[in-house]
Amino acid sequence: MNKKNELVRSIAVPVISVLAGLLLGAIIMLVFQYNPVEGYGAMIEGAFGRAYNVGEVVRLATPLILTGLGFSVAYTAGFFNIGLAGQALCGWIASIWLAMTFPDLPKALLVPLCIIAGTLAGALWAGIAGFFRAQFGTSEVIVTIMLNYTILYISNHIVRYVLTDNADATPKISPNASLRSDFLTQLSGGSRLNGGIFLALLMIVLVWVLMKRTTAGFELRSVGLNPLASEYAGMNAKKNIILAMVISGALAGMGGVVEGLGTFENLYVLSAAPEIGFDGLAVSLLGGGNPIGILLSSLLFGVLKIGGLKMPSVGVPKEIVEIVIASIIFFVGINYAIRYIMDKFAAKKMTGKGEA
Amino acid sequence: MVGTLAIIVSSALVYSAPLIFTALGGTFSERSGIVNVGLEGIMTIGAFSATVFNLFTVNIFGALTPWIAMLFGGVIGILFSLIHAVATVNLRADHIVSGTVINLMAPGLTVFLTKMIFDGHGQTDLIKARFGKTSFPILKDIPVLGEIFFKDTSAPAYVAVLVAILAYYVIFKTKFGLRLRSVGEHPQAADTLGINVYGMKYAGVMISGFLGGMGGAVAVQSISGQFSISTIAGQGFISMAAMIFGKWNPLTVMAAAIFFGLSQSLAVIGSQIDFLKNLPSVYLQAAPYVLTVLVLVLFIGKSQGPKANGQTYIKSK
């Protein structure tokens, strides 16, 4: 009974949060004299109107699934990996670099190689923070923030002076390295939907198995719940710290590979570390760290962000979407209050029934 | 030589000032036990509101406009930080989640409002009254030192230094500071002594909103001169790093912020300085971040924040 109740609630909280976030967005639109029905209508049309739009929604969700999973692995183990963006950028750079170095390798070889390279690069970049945390107790929050900026400048340098001759973007990679396929492109009316989605779905399964069905995952979860007790039980704290960060970074790196080989098919000069970092964090919070939750919230982000691009067609600035997303995460954050109100309602119903 | 030094010092101060304000703000918040990763968002709000205030009141306040706009940015920062305070203190939200909300909300909200106010443009107009360069009378005539430190320099930076000294005094030498720290270290004990734990936490967060908002206001009014999405791009996170780097002590936090300001400014003015001219810019750009990591690892190691930092205090009935 109690367990079932808890399940209902853990689903109800994100659903209520999403509705409350959309409601707040509607109120803001009303305050500024926009028609919320028109605004959200445009959003739905922008997200589902044609095959192309749906393709773009899934395309946008793909790297978020990966960075979201990455955040959740570290978070479960008690670490706040704020460096997903930098780790994703590492993966992006590594995959593009490899793709540009061996453009003529057969696709069946080049694509896996690029994915592996990007994954390793992300893992390595996060591993630095994990190693410092394990060895010297240095805060992973500050180290990963610093590493975000470091890789951002290194990346821009690589684009300008290593991969090109003073250009702001690398040329497109050869089709042999691309994650796009004619089948998916045609299916989705020419969108940038790519094979990365299969990689992301595979990772959802793998991360679930890892965290719930293996000893390593059990150790990571225990360390997150109670580091001292875990160590007392004979688990190696240092090993687990590094492992959590490396897995987290590897997943973020894969997210970057998807951006590089799938979405953009090149690397260009960036003004900030890739957005998929912070969005992945938000997706993971909304999904409650649960792989299926992360899948659903990534898709929701895709609908909001891609659909939001259509909102200016009825005059509503697309930034309203960011406000809605932030409010959704806010309501998830104050789930204590939502649960409290739900309990009050449930209690009222019970007493009401009793009297009847 | 003196000329080069003067350029380095004055531009370092320009870039340091926003970081000092904001990092001090973070210090107050975390001293009360509330982790504030939302500094970036608070700076964004402060920068936006100061810009709008500056644009609309410059005809009334004239040369004083940037200073009043700075205070205005601080006040709006307080209002915005209240979201964080309510969420973390009363509604038991995870501090990092709530701070992330602040960071997600601020850019969307400010650009939305910018579009509302400025006919759909993504950035504001250029402000007319900036902080500009200030020379301190008398002090500027001191040989050598005067030219380096007091001539054509950044006035907000000196205000920031004064605020840092004041913050040190408040946190370590006053009753308020003692209470603030005790709430951050051991809220249960503080509560039994009759200290208003929730009140102190609110105070800590609101001070961080005020100082963070002013930090954003200083940044926009002394560097870019107009607000856009890229006005505040990472300064809040750097301030957070300065706070940890400075170990939650206002004076060392200030020193850390100046260090970051110096390295940021070197990346900007590097091409004007002889001995840095031929260095690829990537080294100067990445140096502050790499150095921070190295210094943390080699000399500081485990940064111990306030003991109850990040924990939600639930008052028992």
Automatic annotation (TrEMBL), chain A:
Listed transmembrane segments: 12-34, 82-102, 108-129, 141-163, 193-211, 241-261, 281-308, 320-342
An annotated GO cellular component: plasma membrane
Entry superkingdom: Bacteria
InterPro entries referenced in this protein's UniProt entry, alphabetically: ABC_transp_permease (IPR001851)
Protein's membrane topology: Multi-pass membrane protein
Localization in the cell: Cell membrane
Pfam families registered for this protein in UniProt: BPD_transp_2
Keywords from the named record: Cell membrane, Membrane, Transmembrane, Transmembrane helix
Alphabetical list of CDD domains matching this protein: TM_PBP1_transp_TpRbsC_like (cd06580)
GO molecular function, one term: transmembrane transporter activity
Matching PANTHER family: ABC TRANSPORTER, PERMEASE PROTEIN, GUANOSINE ABC TRANSPORTER PERMEASE PROTEIN NUPP
Annotated protein name in UniProt: Branched-chain amino acid ABC transporter permease
Species whose genome carries this gene: Vagococcus humatus
Automatic annotation (TrEMBL), chain B:
Pfam families found in the cross-reference section: BPD_transp_2
TM helices/strands, residue ranges: 6-25, 37-61, 67-89, 96-118, 155-172, 202-221, 227-245, 252-270, 282-301
One cellular component (GO) term of this entry: plasma membrane
Membrane topology reported for the UniProt record: Multi-pass membrane protein
Protein's cellular compartments: Cell membrane
Provenance organism: Vagococcus humatus
GO molecular function annotation: transmembrane transporter activity
Protein name: Sugar ABC transporter permease
Major localization listed first in the record, in broad terms: membrane
InterPro entries in alphabetical order: ABC_transp_permease (IPR001851)
Keywords: Cell membrane, Membrane, Transmembrane, Transmembrane helix
Keyword flag Cell membrane: yes
